[in-house]
Structures are given as C-alpha cells and as structure tokens.
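Action item from last week, closing it out:
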Amino acid sequence: MHYTAMGSAEGARDWLCNPDSGVSSHYVLARDGTCWHLVDEEMRAWHAGAGAWGSVDDVNSRSVGIEIANTGAEPFPEPQMAALERLMQGIMARWSIPPERVIGHSDMAPGRKIDPGPRFDWARLARRGLSIRPGQAAPGDFDADARRFGYVYDPANRGPVLEAFRARFRPGAEGPLDATDRAIMADLAARWPVA
C-alpha cells in the first residue's frame, strides 16, 4: 500500500507510466474510486524500492503494488476505500495472500517511506478481513518482536520502525517507546510471525 503524495490521480498515473520516472505500480486508485491497472500482476513493478519484509529483500518481485491517490495529509474518501476493498479481495484471492502479508510502504522501508500514513484506515481493512488488527499480549522485547513480525532494522534505528508501527497500529501515539507499544508488538509477533 502506497499513497501517491501528488495532487491528482491522473498526474500520478501519468508519472508511473512515464519510462523516465524509473517507477511503476500495478494499480492506481483515484479519490472517486476509478482504478487504473498499469502493470500485469504477474509482472514486476517498481513500486517498493529499497527495503525488506522478513526475509524478502526484493519486495518488488514478491508483491502487487497499489498506489492510492492521496497527499498524506487528507482522509481517504469512501469511494476510494470501497474500490480498494474490491481490488484487494481479488488480488488476495488470486495470489492466496493472507491478511497478515498486506503491508504498507512504511512497513518495508521504515525511515525511508511513510506511506500510506496515519490517515489510512487499516482498521477498516482489518474488519473486512483484508488486513490485521492486533490486540495486546504481555509486553515483550520490542526489537525482537518487531523482527519476528517482519520489520527488518538495526536496533540503533528503532525510531523509524516505531514511527511506522505507530502510524499503522497506534495512529496519534507519540513519545518514547512504551508498554502499550511493546504489548501490541508482542501480540503481532505471537500471532503473525513472518517466518
């Protein structure tokens, strides 16, 4: 999941179709729910860039990229979210993708990417079985649990992972790592380990 960080969906679509851009995506979703299919799902698109999820360090070759027209500072409108749900249902069924393997750009590239951002409604997707929503376990070792869940990072670089984690699972949370962060990450690692 990405957001385009551009003012218009058409501008994002055109940029992703421009060979000079060096980037591409399988799909682009406009605010009104219009969906453009740019790259066949079985082909590699250049949407993820540097980063990893678990042992997968070439995410472009192992994923279907969806660019959602949004600046990052605005809500994702209802027609767009409804279209995203329909699109995801088909992709997940065709490729047998479980909800725990649906990730954001910030999950696989913490510190480098922040999309789809804290305004993205992950909880809505989880209610529809298209993503996950953790509970809380006994607080554990945040670093070890983050790696077990799928985040790849050096503990000295915990800040960006904490920001990516919070944007997705604790929007609005601020300050230093706390027991709630550790409890949620422990639940994620216990229920959905990446390996």
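Closing note: The mean pLDDT is 96.
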